[in-house]
Amino acid sequence: MLNGKQTRHLTLPLWKALIKYVDGQKRAEQQLKASEENFRVLAETVPQFVWTAQPDGSHEYTNQRWRDYTGFTPERVQRWDDLQFLHPDDRAMNQALWRHALDTGERFECEGRLRNGQTGVYRWVLTRAMPVRDEAGQIIKWFGTCTDIEDQKRIEEALRQSQERVNALMNSNIIGINVIEGEQIVDANDTFLRMTGYNREDLRAGCINVMHMTAPEDRAQTQQAHQELAVRQALTPYEKEYICQDGSRLPVLVGGVVLQHDPFQALGFVLDNSAHKELEQRKDHFLGMASHELKTPIASLMLQTQLLRKQLAKQDIQNADRALSRMESQLNAVTRLVGELLDLSKIQAGKLEHAQETVNLGDVLQEVIEIMQQTQTTHAIVVHHAEHPPLLIGNKDRLGQVLLNLISNAIKYSPGANTIEVAIETSEESVILSVCDHGIGIPREQREKIFERFYRAVAPYQHAFPGLGMGLYIASEIVKHHRGTITVESEMGKGSTFHVTLPRKSP
Ligand code: ADP
User: Fold this and answer.
1) Tens digits of per-residue pLDDT, 163-187?
2) Does residue 493 sit in the same domain as residue 464?
3) What is the total count of domains within the chain?
4) Closest ligand 1 atom, CA of 455?
5) Of 136, 183, 257, 379, whose CA is between 20 and 30 Å from 204?
6) Of 329, 349, 369, which one is at a domain's C-terminal end?
7) Where is the PAC domain (predicted)?
8) Which domain holds residue 7?
9) Ligand 1 geometric centre to CA of 286 (Å)
């Protein structure tokens, strides 16, 4: 600026220039003030913490929000170096990065936990700072913000934990896991590959196809399972056999859930079921052996008892005859039980007889009723015969067994009634047999289950009836072998009607 002595000698143009210069200065100062004011308003309004620092990193300004949160007065923040407001574990990293930024003039960026001065609770923030330079490129200050990233950090942590769990599952050597797209297995864990003998190369080359690696007899069920998966989002676990890479077979238990729909992807879970299957086979083998071992001596005992009874009857020794008669009926019960056990093991081994003779179901029914009426006197069996001869192709003895089972169940489970109605009808394609009783009935939710192995209904009075839950299972397997169906209608306390539908022999 000019002093008083100097201004006295100024000419008019110079005066004008001087006044213009002073005005310019004033305007610049006002603009600076206004821009600083603008900055402050902005800094106090944004949701972030805002701060500035001097070129050497020492404190210059923090917004009110920052001070409220940390509880630091402007005086207490004169030096940043103590970093009291940062979590102790984050200080070293923060300091090192800040030092580096100050030394190099590069932008600063660091995540750390900032302490709430009032509650002492830390929240994650992302701190960023940029240097502000003058025209010569010299840093004149640092401008920084801290943004709350607590929620993001929480999500990241939850994701990390869930990823850890997924990894633990994927890396477990207990359960095979695969990702299926259509019929193709597009990803799998090591356990699945180890189980099936395939490797990562096979996976990459797209060589693992669910249908190809499923045993032929299980393919229809697998197809059905995939359809169920698409509709119900999850798969009820089912048993099947894989054909491994080396051609060997592996019994497995598989389940799955839908991952995404477009393109359709499912996550499959596979458990090696071979130990369980082997045990089951051993059990079935044992049942078969035990029944065989029992059957011969029982048959011989039965024969001897009958002979003895006939001899005694001739001598008219009444009491001995009655005792032997009871023995005979007990032996009959044991014979039936052993027969059922034997059938069960045959079914399990897939060795049920497949005789293919022409059978008249009406004749079979007549024979069964004659046998039954020799031993039971409580119920009259009323028969409604078909108009046309109910001819079909199958196994006469096995079909007789189905009838015997249905009629004896009808009698057993209707102790308060005295009739059973049996009807045979024919349609163009089928022979339909119905056995109707007026007994205890079967609860609705158990009407399908009673055809399963060893299943006995849970219902009032049920425990009063002897049985092992094998008869209907065997009957339904026999019906299946004849490509037929067996169903039941029932009303609790009123009775049940079993319907067997079998394909009729074409005329
Ligand atoms: P069991 O009679 O030896 O228990 P089944 O396999 O023949 O075995 O029958 C399975 C179950 O079905 C029986 O335990 C019984 O609960 C039910 N059941 C079968 N037939 C009838 C019937 N006619 N009335 C009521 N319940 C029946």
Assistant:
1) 999 888 888 888 999 999 989 999 9
2) yes
3) 5
4) 10
5) 257
6) 349
7) 108-161
8) 1-40
9) 25
